[in-house]
Amino acid sequence: MSTASTRRLSPQEYLAQERKADFRSEYLRGEVFAMAGASYERTLIKDNLARKAGNQLEAGPCRVLTSDMRVKVAATGLYTYPDIAIVCDEPQFEDAALDTLLNPRALMEVLSDSTEKYDRGAKFGHYRQLPSLQEYILVAQDKPLVERYCRQPDGSWLLTVFDQMFQELGFTSIPVRIPLAEITNFPDAPGSPARGKGS
Fewer CB within 10 A of the terminal residue: the chain, N end or C end? Predict the structure, then answer.
């Protein structure tokens, strides 16, 4: 991400600008940060996750929202666009525009070279301030690796790693299970179709 504006904006000015913009930007403490476009592989993984989770949640109260839905962390003032947000309670929004969600139960980010440090560090620090958030999922796009952080009763976060193609990503607060093999084809992973054909 890069700073898109040198003049500090109020949240209201940011929202007014963002709703007219041709591209998406994050906002924090008066600064606006343009977001880079996504690669084919990252988009494929995000869409697979959203589709498979959405299919499993179709009959229940939970809804899967992709990166067009803005999320606000009220405690820190961050406005951002997670790759996937899942909301299960009555959705709460910033205002009548209904385009800024306040209460996601789960958030997912597909990692890239340019975002991994931020997604693991500062961004997760913001997300942890969301009272509604129960799970944070990080997904690698170059290998079978999914990291699930679950909020514990004492407020700590428990990490579970899924790094084998035969494993399933299982959520703890939402009735969703997704095999890693269905997220994408990692050609260098043991047991993958591409590896089996080529070696």
Answer: C
C-beta separation of 26 from 79 below 8 A: yes
Burial of 196 (0-12, 13-18, 19+ CB in 10 A): exposed
Residues 126 and 24: their CA atoms lie apart, in Å, by 19
Distance from C-alpha of 42 to C-alpha of 83, rounded to nearest angstrom = 9
Strand partners, 86: 64, 106
SS3 (DSSP) at 47? helix
Phi, psi at residue 29, to the nearest 5°?
A: 50, 50
Whole-number Å distance between alpha carbons of 64 and 136: 14
Q: For 159-180, write each residue's pLDDT tens digit.
A: 999 999 999 999 999 999 999 9
- For residue range 116-150, list pLDDT tens digits in order: 999 999 999 999 999 999 999 999 998 999 999 99
Q: What integer pLDDT is reported at residue 6 of this predicted model?
A: 64
Dihedral sign for Cα 35, 144, 122, 118, please. negative
| Cα–Cα distance, 187 to 185 (Å, whole number) | 6
Cα(57)–Cα(64) distance, integer angstroms = 8
pLDDT tens per residue across span 49-59: 999 999 999 99
Q: Where are the beta strands (DSSP E) in the chain?
A: 2-3, 25-28, 31-34, 63-66, 70-73, 78-80, 84-87, 100-101, 106-110, 135-139, 146-151, 157-162, 168-170, 177-179
